[in-house]
Amino acid sequence: IAKTKGLENIIPIHTKSEELKINLESESIDTVLLYDVLHYMEALGRKRRYEEIYRILKTGGLLSVYPKHRKSDEPLGNL
């Protein structure tokens, strides 16, 4: 979708929760979207994931977290 909108600098990164190190330079990312994953992690795993995200985010970068979608969160659930 991003490329169809002319956005060429968006790179999806998919990791497993046990892979704590993200292979990116420190302070190299403007925005991190963390959606639908935290509820799968233990508290220590969440803490370590946040620490790694903090490491790769640029100063003033944006972290957007959506903890878990539920059926009622979907647009059709509100009709």
TrEMBL record:
Which InterPro entries does the UniProt entry name for this protein?
A: Methyltransf_11 (IPR013216), SAM-dependent_MTases_sf (IPR029063)
Q: Name one GO molecular function term.
A: S-adenosylmethionine-dependent methyltransferase activity
Domain named Methyltransferase type: which ranges?
21-64
- The protein's name is Methyltransferase type 11 domain-containing protein
Q: Which organism is it from?
A: marine sediment metagenome
Give the taxonomic lineage as stored in the record.
Answer: unclassified sequences, metagenomes, ecological metagenomes
